[in-house]
Design a protein that fits this description.
58 residues, mainly alpha, 43% helix
Length: 58
Amino acid sequence: MATNDTQRVTLFLNKAILKHAKAEAIFEEMTLTALVEKALLQYLPKETIIKKVTILDE
């Protein structure tokens, strides 16, 4: 069920962590995708600023 604002990704996770996440998603009555998205939203800062750094030759 992909929409225009989603993108399929491939992740390599520790098997025990994945098993734990799947169980938690079932307990919370949500999809694994929703659980991971929720966790990322809680972890990530509200805004990320990337600055270009200029390195000067000496």
